[in-house]
Predict the structure of Cold shock protein.
Amino acid sequence: MKGTVAKFNAKRGFGFIRSDQLDDEIFVHITKVDGRRALRPGQDVTFDVEETEKGLAAVNVVVKGAESSSRGKPVTIGIEEPKDRAKYFVIGAVILIIVVAAILLF
């Protein structure tokens, strides 16, 4: 099936596709997009439709003109790796210890 991205929230990883063949917009999650690329409103896509308990959802979504996911790295938008969070926590803890030590020494 062919359609156009109506809206997509890259931070939350989901949006909706408008199709000429269906009246309702179809839900799409970034995990169902080839290469897990974030979509942009207005992009032309091809996709299959799957019935879920919440309604129709797009699967096997491919952006028209985009390279296959086997050729490049997946793009993730707005998602921090857990190891990055741990690194910032350690840096914050060290700074806090230095500040407390400086206050106690003076």
About this structure: Residues 86 and 92 are 10 Å apart (CA to CA). The chain has a mean pLDDT of 83. The chain has one domain: 2-78. The beta strands are 2-9, 14-19, 26-29, 44-52, 55-63.
